[in-house]
Amino acid sequence: MEKYYLGLDGGSTYLKAALMKDKKVVGTVVYPTGIDNNGVAKKIVAALCKKYGISRTDIGYIMATGYSRKILEVADDDISEITAHAYGVRVTAPKEYRPGMVIDIGGQDSKIIYLDANYNVKNFTMNDKCAAGTGKFMEVIAQILETTIDQVGALSLESTAPCDINSTCVVFAQSEVISLVARKVDRRDILAGMHLSMAKRIIKMMKKSEKGGDILMTGGGALNIGIHRAFEEEMMKDVYVAKYPQFNGAVGAAFIASERNEVSSKVVKDTTLERC
Amino acid sequence: MAEPNGINERQRELFIRKSTRVAASYLKRAKALSEMPDAAKPFFDVLENIYIKLTDIQKPEDMKSIGTLCVMVPAELIYAAGAMPVRLCSGSYTAYSIGDDYIPRDACPLVKAVMGFAKVGALPAFDNCTMLVAPVTCDCKKKLAGVMDSVKNFSRKNTVPLHVPPLKKDDADTEVFLKELYRLIPILEKETGVQITARSLAEGINMVGNAQYEMSEFLKFRRHDPALISGTQVMAVMNAYSYMPVNLWAEQMHRLNGDMIRRLEQGHFVSRKNQPRILVTGSPIAFPNIKIPLLIEEMGGVLAADETCMGERGLYDPVSVIDPSFDGMMRALASRYIKPCTCPVFVDNSQRIYRIQQLIKEHKIQGVIYHVLRGCLVYDYEYQLMEEAMGKLDIPIIRVESDYNEEDVEQLRIRIEAFIELIKLKELKKEA
């Protein structure tokens, strides 16, 4: 019987899991990361097994990725988020997507990955030491506007006159938004402005030299229709959204786990310089 | 006089506690990468003496130390004057945090670290320099040269800016630098009380030439795949050059080359055949800021070559004397320190790309990590050109920006780890 393969993506905010079989996603689970990454990972494995009526031994291999990838004891091995996301889009990208650029918006970082026509990573860029252009940015602004991150997208689409938010820094943008609120600006316009500001910030990270292919969004940020539209507006191009965007890293890790004999045993295993 | 630079004795004590601890931890990590060749130990001892035990440089008593910056100050001239050059370009995170208060925020961390050490006066090897020869190179170094003398109670009483022409192609440019070197002669002579003669200059050229010969021999071993020595340890060896009399460094290098021959014969390698071979280029990598070489090797890469000014650049090109007269030697010096120099402060620096292409071929490089220190504009400028050139060669390249602190290590780690995976996957595709 074909085994199941599990990918765990230990992010800054949530721990995501994707279970795969026959290179297809069987199911996904998400838990808040909290302070005990390891405990949460164990719980997730148990919950998945229960949900799909399988035992731990039915899982052939567990691959971890994300910030806590090195410390998850349940995992057999780990791989960087960049590689995981690049693999994930092989499964999650819509059929019509021609590999080119992947924009990933996570909880505390955002990254851009450039793929060649065969989904191989050509290059990548990430934001530096700063929460501008990340999910955290949305979260902070949503809180001031007394809404939640899952609502901001839909609300912003109702805006008729997006306002300018000039600060890219989360803290400065926060005070900017507070002063907009004080001036009784419609919160829908503020949210639309926030999405445009984030999109602009991320577009600045893009390399002018990398052209060709389509644009795909992954990560929890891609669940937000507002930022999706903002990218389309700013780049004047169609932007695709991956299936299970939040789980793209976990799906990629599971995909690599399923190919471990072909890829991961050679790529993943040698992670330290041999001490001889 | 108790607080000459606004730093009291207690602050100085705390500074030393922190800076020695940081230096020790980096030395330890570098040593732990792979078994060190016996002959590499003395270089590590030098770094330990300078940065942790806080001793002066081991050299003859009557030999003065002359501080230098960058790679454009001819060591040969200083040796000819009976002194030794001590390169003050530093990678100290602790000194950087002190210098940060005196130097504009957007300036590079290297000049902040130099300023920090000057203010605190914690390293005898630095403080015992009686003079500083500061080449006028990038804006940060230029302005640093201008403010060094304002540091009070600082034994370096005299900072001598050395004009480096921003162009280097025409003979007229070398002529400008030649005049500068002639101007430097009486200044050095006055400082040391030793006259620079044709004989002492020839000796200086020979001494440095000998070190360069050993270096070129060593580079042959560094080309070997699998690797014979960890590249991070090589960076430490190269950094130690700043704090050793050149003949001593060459002697130790000769021993290290002996170790390399033995390792080659015994098949003693520190990497496996399929580990990605990486070249580092870009902003200076000065001890103890060796976090990028360390991360590369801790994440499974092999640092197989570097094109940096604290690494091979300073010692790669020998002085070639065609006319053995005094003026002939001076011309050879001026030419060597300007023409082949691949520092991006020069307007046209296409030689740097050629040199990197050469290194990629010789050292069997599979990927390039381009290091940019925050505020180091000249290196960042050349990234675009480098990316284009690497694209043509189908060599992956990644730009990593960093500063003198340990807070960005995780961000750097993920980039470097993903880059190494990228190379491995690329090679795998090639096989298939």
Question: How would you characterize the overall build of this protein?
Answer:
The complex is a heterodimer of chains A (276) and B (432). By secondary structure, chain A is α/β, with parallel strands linked by helices. Chain A has two domains: 4-85 and 247-267, ATPase, nucleotide binding domain (Nucleotidyltransferase, domain 5); 97-241, ATPase, nucleotide binding domain (Nucleotidyltransferase, domain 5). Chain A has nine helices and ten strands. Chain A has helices at 37-51, 81-92, 135-144, 152-157, 170-182, 187-205, 225-235, 248-258, 264-267, and strands at 4-10, 14-21, 24-32, 59-66, 77-78, 101-105, 110-115, 121-126, 215-218, 239-241. In chain A, strands 3-2-1-4-5 form a five-stranded mixed sheet, sandwiched between helices. In chain A, strands 8-7-6-9-10 form a five-stranded mixed sheet, with helices on both faces. In chain A, α3 (135-144) packs antiparallel against α6 (187-205). The longest helix of chain A has 19 residues, at 187-205. Chain A starts with a strand and ends in a 9-residue tail after the last helix. Mean pLDDT of chain A is 87; it is low at 268-276. Chain B is of the alpha/beta class and 432 residues long. Chain B has one domain. In chain B, 53% of the residues lie in helices and 11% in strands. Chain B has 18 helices and eight strands. Chain B has helices at 9-32, 41-51, 75-80, 93-99, 109-120, 124-127, 139-147, 171-192, 198-222, 231-240, 246-266, 291-298, 313-316, 326-338, 350-362, 377-381, 383-393, 409-431; strands at residues 65-68, 84-87, 129-136, 159-163, 277-282, 302-307, 367-373, 397-402. In chain B, the strands form two sheets. In chain B, strands 2-1-3-4 form a four-stranded parallel sheet, sandwiched between helices. In chain B, β1 (65-68), α3 (75-80) and β2 (84-87) form a beta-alpha-beta unit. In chain B, α8 (171-192) crosses α14. The radius of gyration of chain B is 21 Å and the shape is globular. Chain B starts with 8 loop residues before the first helix and ends with a helix. Chains A and B meet through α2 and β8 of A and α17, β8 and α18 of B.
